[in-house]
Amino acid sequence: MTVLMHTLHVDLGERSYPIYIGRDLFSDGALLRDHVAGRQVALVSNETVAPLYVDRVREALSEVDLVSEIVLPDGEQYKTLETLQVIFDRLLQDGHNRSTTLIAVGGGVVGDMTGFAAACYQRGVNFIQVPTTLLAQVDSSVGGKTGVNHPLGKNMIGAFHQPRCVLIDIDTLHTLPEREMAAGLAEVVKYGLICDEPFYRWLHEHMPNLLAREESALVEAIERSCMNKAQVVAEDERETGVRAILNLGHTFGHAIETAQGYGSWLHGEAVAAGMCIATRLSVALGNIPETEALALESLLQRMNLPTKPPQDMGVDQFLTLMGRDKKVSDGQLRLVLLRGIGDAIVTADTPLDEVAAVLG
Amino acid sequence: MTVLMHTLHVDLGERSYPIYIGRDLFSDGALLRDHVAGRQVALVSNETVAPLYVDRVREALSEVDLVSEIVLPDGEQYKTLETLQVIFDRLLQDGHNRSTTLIAVGGGVVGDMTGFAAACYQRGVNFIQVPTTLLAQVDSSVGGKTGVNHPLGKNMIGAFHQPRCVLIDIDTLHTLPEREMAAGLAEVVKYGLICDEPFYRWLHEHMPNLLAREESALVEAIERSCMNKAQVVAEDERETGVRAILNLGHTFGHAIETAQGYGSWLHGEAVAAGMCIATRLSVALGNIPETEALALESLLQRMNLPTKPPQDMGVDQFLTLMGRDKKVSDGQLRLVLLRGIGDAIVTADTPLDEVAAVLG
């Protein structure tokens, strides 16, 4: 059995933590145990993921006194305060104390909710991310953003709470549906666009290998994505500045997700369409040539990702929903745009009619 | 109009903030405005407090663009995730963004919930405490502990989130019901017991002045209480050590509150009975003479505070409920006891039969 492992570090002072990337990591019990501080663990997953992986994670924790299993319904539409309450109920019923460790086994929804539960339970307990979707592995499990949705806006209620470690077992990608795989690749493409042009060019070249889920290509893409994210997060943990570039396509994407109802478009799908809008806007402002927008669209189309917003969404609906985005500061709409490939900026002075023209 | 003002500082590095104590502070608009960062404010109060003070606070904010008023139902039984949702709904409906400031005008319940809402809304916004009960002024508004209750335990869901300032207008105490006044004085007595013997002796002497609500006595008691609290919090913001002494009587008190149903005993009443239990236990362990326990009971009785737990609570119920207290660490019951007057310690090695004997 080959256990191939790469270790990255997210550098955040006393909140620093490692990211482990490799194969068959669940069988390496020591890896998890080293990051469990007390004698209690709660494994949080969902109905889809639990039957696949939870028993293996549980085995690795055989020396822990109390292991609770909390299985949530599957889907973005359950990323709510009500579902969070289910986690709190179980933690209290089972007698978890302040030294417990929550372990999120699943995709971005499970990770975001488990992290937020850990941030709030008894005013903060430890947690570990074990992301099982590509999107969670390259994005949501790293960086400490946690939270739930509100009917009026995505991720509107949450906390910054860093995990003790992130454990990425790429074997989990073999069972991932194609649609989810593509949604994860959208975020991978994002890193190239915002801050890593060589990686962006590499992605154009190696997309067939990634879609065929070739191991070495997957490890390279995940490692490079996590490195880029870790670097941005280390510079600006609480998003007072540069971290906002990680949201390329997200202001538009969140509006799409909110308008369509959570769970209808996958997050990565909405981000793909949102990145195309942001790129088109960057072309309209004269920042990049139109050929780059076309190249991006063709790359995303090879992954069966949307490159346009839903037909039934009008400009007004976009602008209203974007007005609730967290990147609005005192009435100013802040957007992430490209100054070039691999060079994103946050700007508050895009004329609204330019935005409307691209959306129309 | 005499505006008498004392200023204290809670020293927490970049999270430091001032506490203003005085009369007629609401009319000093600049004081509030100096701590409002953006152009949006949400005033959070309850049905009892809103008619008394909210208009005056609102007047002081005449230069702010958006002022939302959120009025919650009054009572500890509403300190829940469901009520928190009401705050989030209004903030989103009214379009509050990440630079908004939440202002809590009310007692401990309003302050704890508003602070927790501020900790979670868009992953953290500013907030200001304007405590209007003695208990909130001397305890809950200072130190950054925020949260809500769960049916299985008090303050089980929450966050550490420091306010930008605390504004204590002692004029609010003139309308405070006697029972609430006494509940606040219980926490004042606590500071003397745990870390300030001279203040404890002063309280015995000046209790009549406090009960008569004499201005100079009130200011002295509030200032001394806040100073003691600020000092302990500055040493240990996140309660990894010494801060736990602030919970003298609270482990027993929380069990009483949970058993009786939130809102039946006031928090300060439960703490009074809890402090008597902890003091009796300290006597049983030979730490202090029995005369001190009797003196404390007689002091609390002068304020019409309970000195014994409810008759219908048995030892087993106490121990079960205390097992869920946040001060339980990996199965060890940690208690705050007195080593002497003005000298509290946290200990995990009190024999359970000694605890049971004092409760029985």
Give the secondary structure arrangement, pairings included.
Two copies of one chain form a homodimer.
Chain A: E1 5-10, E2 17-22, H1 29-33, E3 40-46, H2 50-60, E4 66-72, H3 81-93, E5 101-106, H4 108-120, E6 126-131, H5 134-140, E7 145-150, E8 153-160, E9 166-169, H6 178-195, H7 197-211, H8 215-235, H9 250-260, H10 267-284, H11 290-302, H12 315-322, E10 328-329, E11 332-333, E12 335-340, E13 343-347, H13 352-359
Parallel strand pairs in A: 2-9, 3-4, 3-5, 5-6
Antiparallel strand pairs in A: 1-2, 7-8, 10-11, 12-13
Helix pairs in contact in A: 3-4, 5-6, 5-8, 6-7, 6-8, 6-10, 7-8, 9-10, 9-12, 10-11, 10-13
What do these coordinates show?
The structure is a homodimer of 360-residue chains. By secondary structure, the first copy, chain A, is an alpha/beta fold. Chain A has two domains: 5-175, Rossmann fold (3-Layer(aba) Sandwich), CATH 3.40.50.1970; 191-359, Up-down Bundle (Dehydroquinate synthase-like, alpha domain). Chain A contains 13 helices and 13 strands. Chain A has helices at 29-33, 50-60, 81-93, 108-120, 134-140, 178-195, 197-211, 215-235, 250-260, 267-284, 290-302, 315-322, 352-359; strands at residues 5-10, 17-22, 40-46, 66-72, 101-106, 126-131, 145-150, 153-160, 166-169, 328-329, 332-333, 335-340, 343-347. In chain A, β5, α4 and β6 (126-131) form a beta-alpha-beta unit. In chain A, α7 runs antiparallel to α8 (215-235). The longest helix of chain A has 21 residues, at 215-235. Chain A is globular and about 60 Å long. Chains A and B meet through α3, β7, β8 and β10 of A and α3, β7, β8 and β10 of B.
